[in-house]
Write a structure and sequence with these properties.
With 141 residues, this protein is an alpha+beta fold. It is built from five helices and five strands.
């Protein structure tokens, strides 16, 4: 890869996160049931950023981010499969337990920050994981 091509992609990144929201299940209960610690969590009534609003539900989030500078300056299109594989390894062990959270809203979100909009190809194993989890799959470009 040419040096100028490497520099073009230094700020690109791909994030995949799983968010679970519930009015019944507090983050500590989710942590206990899933056997995993979140990267972020909040409870009903907690401040929602700097907006002055408050959360109307409990939240529990695990997140996987891959930055181009971590993998030799690769573009976002090359980061997507890396992020998906890392997300599968992280969330796969408790995906079945997530699927059993009937009263919770579940979201898997793929967020891409890139200079050019990449093509997105999902492996069978990633789609199977999203299907097992249930809920929605969202893409944010």
């Amino acid at each position: 890869m040419a040096m100028n091509e490497l520099n073009d992609h230094l700020d690109e990144r791909v994030t995949i996160y799983l968010a679970i929201e519930s009015t019944d299940l507090k983050p500590s209960a989710l942590t206990d049931r899933l056997g995993a610690c979140p990267d972020r969590e909040w409870v009903i009534g907690a401040p929602r950023g700097k907006t002055g609003k408050r959360w109307e539900c409990h939240g529990w989030v695990v997140e996987t981010t891959v930055r181009s500078e971590e993998v030799g300056g690769q573009s976002a299109s090359k980061l997507i499969p890396v992020a998906m594989e890392r997300f599968e390894r992280r969330v796969g062990p408790f995906a079945k337990a997530i699927s059993e959270l009937d009263s919770a809203q579940k979201y898997v979100v793929l967020t891409i920050l890139a200079e050019h909009i990449p093509g997105i190809e999902c492996s069978h194993s990633f789609l199977d994981l999203v299907s097992t989890i249930g809920g929605t799959f969202q893409i944010d470009l």
